[in-house]
Batch of 2 targets.
Target 1
Amino acid sequence: MQMTLRWYGSRFDTVTLQQIRQIPGVTGVISTLYDTAPGDVWELSDILALKKEIEDAGLSLAGIESVNVHDAIKAGLFDRDKYIDNYIATLENLGKADIHLVCYNFMPVFDWTRTELARVRPDGSTVLAYTQEAVDQLNPEEMFSSISGDTNGTIMPGWEPERMQHIKELFEMYRSVDDEALFSNLKYFLERIMPVCDKYDINMAIHPDDPAWSVFGLPRIIINKANILRMMKMVDNPHNGVTFCSGSYGTNLENDLPDMIRSLKGRIHFAHVRNLKFHSPTNFEESAHLSSDGSFDMYEIMLALYDIGFTGPIRPDHGRMIWGEVAMPGYGLYDRALGATYLNGLWEAIEKSHRK
Ligand code: CS2
Ligand code: MN
């Protein structure tokens, strides 16, 4: 595996490439053109400039997170082909720039949903958290305003203010889209993009829905083993693969994470590894990565990745806010650096204990 960190680009991230370069064992970043909107064609020159900036700092651009999918594609609207053509043009430019990993998601309206961005833990750190009770009391249109005060002045991925202004229309767009329709819209999209992925050897890695159940009555399909295996089968091409995000699949305690990893052998192209601490099955917070700080056995997760021969990029996912850092919630430097170091330690121990 290759240890990486997510980086939003020098104009948007509080963390610098020079800082990332000093985290032992982190050799690359996962980045994006953060100022593009879903449906835009990414220019080759912009991609190459991003790549050069990263390489000049002594790191590699290990993949893109995310190339976001336009809602017309997810909702299966009449004009979806135009947006798929644009997506294909972006993939073509990424392929020309020698980039072979694209993370994306297929969640209607919202990307991940949290109800608190700065829950205070006993040690004084703050973390992202979720309670179903809070969601049940909220009108989806209020969701954004209820958390926007805690973003530390940053733009949260998937929660761009311009997008949130149109939230009513977005909900309207998905009114007749149920799980089956969403599956079939995903199949249509994948079938259209697979030829360009085959041509440039681009691994598409779908990110799970977070939390892994329906929120605000919206359909959600990338939530468990049965559904993800169905998706792998419905477009049976190795380029149709998965971002295995332990913190997202893990929101549903019925998901057996190591078992899911083993069942996806050969199709996991990217891994997000983080821990959650549950107070009840629908009240959880994003704890430190260490097993004992949360509810997951991180050793077993890393061992499962090792067992399937995982060689792709991996990254610590959301970190806590510690040591007075002010950054995009989940994306500060300090706790993600601790997470990367811990995961690297687990990996080293697993590798050495498997030496014949
Ligand atoms: C998130 C998402 O958990 C995560 O990694 O922060 O925003 C994720 O990057 C997207 O859903 C992937 O498209
Ligand atoms: Mn993730």
Note: The pocket of manganese (II) ion (ligand 2) is lined by residues 207, 245, 247-248, 272, 317 (CB under 6 Å).
Target 2
Amino acid sequence: MKIGIVCYPTFGGSGVVATELGLELSKRGHEVHFITYNQPVRLELISNNVHYHEVNVPEYPLFHYQPYELALSSKLVDMVKLYKIDILHVHYAIPHAYAAYMAKKMLREEGIFVPIVTTLHGTDITLVGNHPFYKPAVTFSINKSDAVTAVSESLKNDTLRLFDIKREINVVPNFIDLTKYHDHFNDCQRSMMAKPEERIVTHISNLRPVKRVQDVISVFYNIQKEMPAKLMLVGEGPEREKVELRCKELGIYEKVVFLGKSNEIDKILCYSDLFLLPSEAESFGLAALEAMSSSVPVISSNAGGISEVNKQGVTGFLSNVGDVDDMTKNALYILKDEKRLNTFKANARAEAKKFDLHTIVPQYEAIYEDTLTKC
Ligand code: GMT
């Protein structure tokens, strides 16, 4: 198949999933066209089967807001015609599903039919899309998609609860390339990051308020009072400054390593002992799955779809949002006993195997085939 993928090309989970999906589809013989405003961060290799088409939005002073949806739908029309793309798979409803629908209508005028698969990722439903300013357009474009998928049961239920959806929503969970996350990395540079007796705790996110990074700091503060420990904070975002300040106030700045945005998540996770994800909302928690693939147990909140990934008492523990004391108690329970820590590590890796890309990607292929047959 010739598949057009639209996504946010940034470090966010939806862009990562879309990119990894496109790369795997190309390996499986499909021709994949990424259509987005920048080269996706995890897209390192452009090959015969993987193409990248940049959406340019010319700046015009009259516009207070540059019309990205217009530029995207025009680009989609051009690329579908030029490369004879069979199907468009858009990740994140806003504004991708809307732009794809407009492209589909324009192409229809020329006798070309291209179906649209929309994958809902989380904040496009729970935070942004639900805003009254966007809701009618989001509802419309989901209903007008030829197939809709959500990355967890929880997100599917949220979508049905918050929007008037007349389409079936298929749950296709996020996936992981297990070969990229080895539990015994050859060049795992633990000794460069911490002393042998220190436990390494890690948090990876876009440091937005929804991630509750302050809870990460509180839990880590409590942990390091009980045992030697280091915190790896990976990612950039609006909370960073406040978090740095708090670390200084608490006197733990020396124990926190701010690693910024990184393309080497696997290397950081290979020396981590525990992953913290206390989010306010999380449709899936791809970062938790990445941690588990590296044999890192997870201490998380029980928001949204996290419980579909992190299994209570098996791969880690889940607490109510904001319950820092419970998270601390659970973290110490795992970290204080070497044997127990190793059991949780092994369980985390075993559970992650359920999300192997070789199991999940064929589910998307089946949806494409089914959609093409039905339309
Ligand atoms: O977590 C974010 O803020 C980024 C966001 C995105 O759109 O990239 O992540 C969402 O999609 C990920 C991939 O499907 C999910 O793993 C995240 O749980 C989801 N984030 C939220 O629901 C807050």
Note: The CA atoms of residues 42 and 263 lie 7 Å apart.
